[in-house]
Amino acid sequence: MSDFDREFITDAITRMLARREHSFDEICRKLSQKGIESDAFIPILEEFREANIQCDKRFAESRARALYHKGAGPRKIKLDLQHYGVNEYVAQRAIQEIEADWFEAALKVKVKKFGAGRETDFKYAMKQKQFLQYRGFYSEHIEFAVKGE
Asked: CA angle, 25 as apex, 22 and 31 as ends, to 5°?
């Protein structure tokens, strides 16, 4: 690999990480899309990881917190992090770091979309449950938000 190639790859990785945190897999995918061979960028990316410039844990915490503030539940956050190549253990730790009350979060999302009233119509209650399920909440969170149980 020439010095130009190394400089180009280093510059590309630096620009990505300067904007926001990225997972290791996400950077690999983006560099591959630019037509760069993985044999060329993996060693350089490993150097970034060893220097703690790129960190999947930091990415996971940042992404999890952002999704939580957008109203996503724990299931959706976990799946999103796995989509970015974060391993299950790191994803679970990032979700725990939020220290969220998922019951209250589900209720807040439900109230924002459907209002504070408790629904008695079965069909409308099912619509609320499906919405909360789509947002990534577990059944116990959904039941609490919809029925208050």
From this structure: 85
Over residues 43-57, the pLDDT tens digits come to 999 999 999 999 999
What are the structural domain ranges in the chain?
Answer: 3-54, 57-97, 102-147
Give the angle subtended at the CA of 132 by the CAs of 130 and 137, to the nearest 5°.
120
The CB density around residue 98, as the number of other CB atoms within 10 Å, is 17
The CATH code belonging to domain 3-54 is 1.10.10
Are 57-97 and 102-147 equal in CATH topology?
A: yes
The label of the residue with tokens 């350089």 reads 44
Q: How confident is the model at residue 147 (pLDDT cuts 50, 70, 90)?
A: confident
